[in-house]
Amino acid sequence: MVSVAAGGTVINYSSRFSLTGMTGTFPPDVVTGLKSVSGTDGPPTDNQVAGSAPGDGPFAVPYTMQTGPTRYAPMQPQPGTSITAKKVTPLWPTSAVTFAKTFLPQPTIQTTLTQNPTYGLPSIENDASPAPMPNDDMQKFLNRWKD
Q1: Which of 33, 45, 138, 140 supports an S-S bond with 134, CB 3.0-4.6 Å?
Q2: CA distances from 86 to 68, 83, 89 (A)
Q3: Which residues does the UniProt record annotate as the domain Yeast cell wall synthesis Kre9/Knh1 C-terminal (predicted)?
């Protein structure tokens, strides 16, 4: 079976089988090839699909053009190391809003899957000292609400 993907093809071979009760002859090179075959396992899968880049597959289809119960959202871009933008621009185009004037049909979208990030965010320990306990005046003020 040949499967076609975005980056190439995958060929899956079935196990070998025998036919009986057939009449006729094969050319000599076919007979030689048949004698060299042993066992019933077919050849291994031939995967010729190139490694897919992030965003391929269902995540590359614009959200508003997707149909079915599951929608696919693209990965959030990797945040920068500093804020340089002076004006905020949207990442994706906005969608129109229509307010319902009558009852709407049952929704057809059941879930939205967001693509996993291909980057990692480091985390560091917060080594700031905790705030000190309140002083006497503040403690008296806070004690008013103690029950």
Answers
A1: 138
A2: 39, 9, 10
A3: 59-136
The yes-or-no verdict on residue 55 having pLDDT over 50 is no
Nearest Cα neighbor of 57 from 127, 108, 116 is 116
pTM value?
Answer: 0.39
What kind and span of H or E run contains 80?
A: none
* Residue pair 71/58 in contact by the 8 Å Cβ criterion: no
**Are residues 118 and 75 in contact, defined by beta-carbon separation less than 8 angstroms?**
yes
Task: Yes or no: say if 50 and 7 are a contact pair by the CB < 8 Å rule.
Answer: yes
pLDDT digit string (tens) for 90-102? Answer: 877 787 888 999 9
Give the whole-angstrom CA distance, residue 41 versus residue 142. 79
Q: What is the mean pLDDT of residues 46-52?
A: 71
Strand stretches in 1-147, DSSP E: 2-5, 8-11, 46-47, 70-73, 111-114
CB 74 within 8 Å of CB 112: no
Q: Do 112 and 71 meet the contact criterion of CB atoms below 8 Å apart?
A: yes
